[in-house]
């Protein structure tokens, strides 16, 4: 019975400490990441996709980011992604590229000539030459507590070019 009481008290103390860490972490973490997303080239191709004509965009980008300030004593890893937001009537968001950064030493990212990892097409058959904004988004995953999200301030506005026919 004495061992059970000590074990229950120890678990209570541990959970109270973990709860305190989860509550105070957002108040003591200050981050100021520096990011730049440069869109180098956008090619829009028309493609016969299942009997209907659709447009696909292929984007080439450069990324320079210093995300070391997002790592503190409670950060386990970062999920980073380059997101394109576009639309005239409705705002659409598409993840073009993503990665997981597991340590502070890997948090300085310099990548050139990144191609979109994921298919970039619209639910409508055409991009209609609308503007798109490109920004770096991140989610800081803590050891204990709530997920913290953010977005870069450096946003690039780029107009979709006129489509070309897909040469298969």
Task: Explain what the structure shows.
This protein has 168 residues and is an alpha+beta fold. The protein contains 1 helix and 9 strands. The strands form 2 sheets. Strands 3, 4, 6, 7 and 8 form a 5-stranded antiparallel β-sheet that branches. The longest helix is centred in the first third of the chain and has 27 residues, at 2-28. The termini are far apart. The model has no long low-confidence stretch (mean pLDDT 84). It is a single-pass type II membrane protein. Keywords: Endoplasmic reticulum, Membrane, Signal-anchor, Transmembrane, Transmembrane helix. This is Signal peptidase complex subunit 3.
Task: Describe this structure in a few short sentences.
This protein has 168 residues and is of the alpha+beta class. It contains 1 helix and 9 strands; from the N terminus they run αβββββββββ.
The total of helices stands at: 1
Proportion in β-strands: over 45%
Structural class: alpha+beta
Elements, N to C (H/E): HEEEEEEEEE
Termini separation: 75 Å
Q: Major beta sheet, specifics? A: 5 strands, antiparallel
Instruction: Compute the average pLDDT.
Output: 84
Q: Provide the gyration radius in Å.
A: 22 Å
Helix content: 10-25%
Taking pLDDT < 50 over at least 5 consecutive residues as the criterion, the unreliable ranges are: none
Shape: elongated
Total strands: the figure is: 9
């Amino acid at each position: 019975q004495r061992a059970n009481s000590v074990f229950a008290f120890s678990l209570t103390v541990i959970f109270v400490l973990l709860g305190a860490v989860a509550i105070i972490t957002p108040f003591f973490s200050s981050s100021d990441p520096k990011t730049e997303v440069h869109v180098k080239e956008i090619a829009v191709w028309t493609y016969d996709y299942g009997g209907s004509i659709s447009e696909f965009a292929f984007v080439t980008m450069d990324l320079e980011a210093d995300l070391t300030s997002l790592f503190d004593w409670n950060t386990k890893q970062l999920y980073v992604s380059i997101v394109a937001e576009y639309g005239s009537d409705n705002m659409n968001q598409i993840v073009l590229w993503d990665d997981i950064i597991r340590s502070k030493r890997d948090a300085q990212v310099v990548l050139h000539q990144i191609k979109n990892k994921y298919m970039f097409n619209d639910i409508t058959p055409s991009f209609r030459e609308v503007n798109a904004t490109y920004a770096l988004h991140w989610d800081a995953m803590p050891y204990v507590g709530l997920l913290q999200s953010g977005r870069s301030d450096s946003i690039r506005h780029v107009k979709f070019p006129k489509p070309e026919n897909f040469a298969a």
